[in-house]
Amino acid sequence: MNNNLWYRDAIFYEIPIKSFYDSNNDGIGDFNGLTMKLDYLKDLGIDAIWLLPFYKSPLKDDGYDISDYYSILPEYGTIEDFKNFINKAHSYNIRVIADLVINHISDQNQWFIDAKSGINSKKRDWFIWSDTPDKFKDARVIFIDTESSNWAYEPRTKQYYFHRFYSQQPDLNYDNPEVREEMKNVIRYWLNLGLDGFRADAVPYLFKREGTNCENLPETHEYFREIRKMMDTEFPGTILLAEANQWPTDTKEYFGNGDEFQMAFNFPLMPRIFIALAKRSSKPIIDIINQTLDIPDDCDWCIFLRNHDELTLEMVDDEERDIMYKEYAKIPKMRLNLGIRRRLAPLVDNDRSTIELLNALIFSLPGTPILYYGDEIGMGDNIYLGDRNGVRTPMQWSYDRNAGFSGVYAEQLYAPVITNPNYNYEGVNVDSELRISSSLLNWMKKIIGVRKDYTELLGRGTIEFINNPNKRVLAYIRKYENQRMLCLFNLSRRPTYIELDLSNFKGLKPVEAFTKAPFPRIGDLPYFITMPPRGFFWFNLVIPETDDSMDFEGEDDY
Ligand code: NOJ
Ligand code: CA
């Protein structure tokens, strides 16, 4: 296989440095700590890491407000620590991409400090200024809980500057060629230090034009195509992953003609998976997947259940949003902006079958799965921590002090560990879960292993939904060359059954992929299957070698 397509076969894992492991006991995770935990990640089976912003920053937006693009926040370590980490990750065959935050910077950045020093300052035109807050009226406010406008007043020069996120994050002016060039230099700097690519933050908003909503403008696409070209030429094999939280047609645009982003998060799919569960209906998933197919060769979706932000509900209709709030955000504190600030396990009331079903979906739908740190052990959250901090608490390694994350006194930690009795770190931690075969962590290792057994089929195969009158069950076939996998999901909380027309596969035998348990050969009649509540099956469809009467023999467990 073409190795430059590594991202299509990979399993990604998202990490905020601060939250992973504290190597020097100051209460904050760091690069050396992360390096020490690479063995864990290797053992888990992931292939690529996405690092959240680790650059110098006052942390108003947890690092998405960069005050110096060419240095690392001292608490996280040094450039040497960074290089060590990258080298060791590469020696484990783990690739590393990092956040590229280019729409905006921190108001503490020298560029902005210079810009606001006077209207004739050198960097003045690196930002977007106006005498009134009236321009770009159709640009929506994103952090609606904290910001009432995209303009903030700067008293010294008596003008307003534009910001899409917090007012402490002034947007850069991409009409200025110096800005466009500087960001290319930032990209070169970090790729030269060994990164394998970037997750580009807030990509739809770079260019602004009066009379539009200032999202997805042609100029923005063109600039990313320029960046891609530069990366392909100067750093072949590196990738760009788009964070573009948009409707399906607009999100797909970020693949260009295969000359823009290699990957984009499947934001349209994510909330609809949860809606499908709430409605006990396969329809939302089928509809949205059908709208996200047909992307250029060599491009792929990144599919995820949760990340470091609130579960965003910007790109769903009002009815869908109501369903989501009703089902998943029963307490007002669980909401933030237009979303829900909870981790995966609490979202589904810690129901193990549902957690398994959801993971089985993102590991078998078309695209590259990406896991959020801690969700593999079923970590809880803390909705009382403010902003999105409740889903960014210390990783739980053991039942030692501070969940084994750090040796400091608890009050010195950057954030408290989760102590809610249902998710207490004393039970929910890596060490304890590795010791018990039925743990979520061991199940996650298993599904990652099974996915790897079918890398080409599940990573690159086509998908075809199988029509069946029972809407509770989502059924599809993945196909790649002569391999086929039948995937079934009972989205409801009650047992159910389906009869599937599998006549195209007559003569083949379904073999359950996790346990290799054989099922009866597909014949002329509709294929009948019963499914437990929130149960799922992955059946590898094989040419039978053995006599069906032997099916009850063999190993029972995995
Ligand atoms: C998206 C990031 O995921 C989020 O954490 C951040 O606040 C905004 N972009 C602004 O950079
Ligand atoms: Ca530290």
Short description:
This protein has 17 helices and 23 strands. It is an alpha/beta fold and 558 residues long.
Labels describing this entry:
binds calcium ion, 5-stranded antiparallel β-sheet, 8-stranded parallel barrel, 23 strands, alpha/beta, 17 helices, binds 1-deoxynojirimycin
What does this entry look like structurally?
The chain is α/β, with parallel strands linked by helices. It is globular, with a radius of gyration of 24 Å. The chain has 17 helices and 23 strands. It has an eight-stranded parallel β-barrel with strand order 1-2-5-9-10-11-12-16. Helix content is 27%, strand content 18%. Helix 10 runs antiparallel to helix 11 (283-292) and helix 14 (352-362) runs parallel beside helix 16 (440-453). The longest helix is centred in the middle third of the chain and has 17 residues, at 218-234. Bound molecules: 1-deoxynojirimycin and calcium ion. Calcium ion (CA) binds at residues 22-24, 26, 28, 30.
> What is the CA–CA distance across the termini?
30 Å
Query: Can you list the ligands bound to this structure?
Result: 1-deoxynojirimycin, calcium ion
Broad shape = globular
Low-confidence stretches: none
Task: Output the radius of gyration.
Answer: 24 Å
Query: What composes the largest sheet?
Result: 8 strands, parallel, barrel
Strand order of the largest sheet: 1-2-5-9-10-11-12-16
Query: Which structural class do you get from the secondary structure elements?
Result: alpha/beta
Percent range for helical residues?
A: 25-40%
